[in-house]
Amino acid sequence: MNVLVTGGAGFIGSAVVRRLRAQGHHVRILDALLPAAHPAGPPEHWPASGSRSARPAEPPAVRAGPPYAGDVEFRVGDVRDVQAVEDALDGIDVVCHQAAMVGLGVDLDDAPDYVGCNDLGTAVLLSAMARRGLKRLVLAGSMVVYGEGRYECGLHGDVAPGPRTKADLDSGMFEPPCPACGAPLRPGLVGEDAPLDPRNVYAASKVAQEHLASAWARASGGRVIALRYHNVYGPGMPKDTPYAGVASLFRSALARGEAPRVFEDGGQRRDFVHVDDVADANTTAVAAVAEAPEGAVRAYNVGSGEPHTVGEMASALAAAHGGPAPLVTGEYRLGDVRHITADSSRLRDELGWRPGVPFAEGMRAFAREPLRGG
Question: Does 371 fall in a domain?
């Protein structure tokens, strides 16, 4: 198939492109190369066909050579640019929409950029797809749409705790209590049918993306698979940026000879999933989206199935790197949630996807693998 990958020069997008090419798909990339993600242009691990690099020395508007001539076609363009998107959709069968501003950000000054990149960009893409009659979309979603994960109270069963208060966090009370009785809660795996409860601007923008895709699907008869990524890590993560994931921040610290700084008490539970497994989930979805329910969004969690705490992840990285040991600081960010781990059984059962990189193996490799800009 002819596949457009928006954001295809990014950390996850470039891994998706490599997998698509390996499976024989023809790939066109549309990427704005925004400085927050690409301070030095496209990454060194740019997708290649054979031994010939597809990384442009000076990114042109359209990559030299005819479209789909056995290599990756690259276009510099922003998904908020109507004409750039219209041109990029020419001859395309499936769109794999990875372009987004990611991470918790710095402060509310980032809100316009999140909404512009993630929501306006998605709206421009969807309207262009509707005009061209394109009906297959794979959307890069996120686990942040859930807010806190699934919790169970011994007395009240499944409960949804509210946002943690600054007073509690300042006093070191990091675990959310039962909203009904105040008792401690047991965290569990969150499924795709859980209520959406975004807790920060980035999360709100990712919920809006799914809602926009749903409106587009109903109006156009389109088909959407939304892949809700959990904590993705692996080679090529951006280095030293507040928009990178915590795994990259820890890895960057170790490369500088510094101890990874672990916020709260390190007991936050996450599902760390390798970027190669996320790329495989995308290629699986590209193949399956034609059979997805018409006029609707079908969401799938993409996680490893191995919940670990942030402290465990930092310790595994530090041990594999040869130190120094992590430093638990007690610091916190108000927009963070305590526990969010995936139930990815729907993706396994319905589409046959399986994660292939175990946590211990992935962390050992990641401790030595290059970061973007490193």
Answer: no
DSSP state for residue 191 in the 8-state scheme: P
Measured distance CA(308)–CA(304) in Å, rounded: 10
* Contact (CB, 8 A) for 130 and 82: no
Residue 357: predicted pLDDT: 97
Helical pair 310-321 and 359-366, crossing angle rounded to 10 deg:
50
Residue 94 included in any domain: yes
Cis ω for the linkage preceding 324 (within 30 of 0): yes
Q: Domain range spanning residue 282?
A: 2-366
What's the pLDDT tens digit per position in 223-238?
999 999 999 999 989 8
Is 172 domain-assigned? Answer: yes
Give which of 204, 273, 283 is closest to 245, Cα–Cα: 273
Contacts of 58 (CB under 8 A, 6+ apart): none
The total domain count for the chain is 1
Catalytic residue among 146, 151, 202, 233: 202
**Which residues of the chain are modeled with pLDDT < 50?**
44-69
pLDDT of 189 reads 96
Pairing of the two strands 150-153 and 186-190 = antiparallel
Burial class, 275, CB count within 10 angstroms (exposed 0-12 / middle 13-18 / buried 19+): buried
Integer Cα distance of 285 and 271 in angstroms: 20
Per DSSP bridges, beta strands 307-309 and 269-274 are antiparallel
The DSSP call for residue 154 is T
CATH of the domain at 27: 3.40.50.720
What is the phi/psi pair of residue 109, to 5°? -60, -20
What is the per-residue pLDDT for 110? 81
Residue 67 domain flag: yes
Residue-wise pLDDT tens digits, 268-308: 999 999 999 999 999 999 999 999 999 999 999 999 999 99
Annotated catalytic residue 300: no
Q: Which of 214, 196, 207, 210 is nearest to 296 (CA)?
A: 214
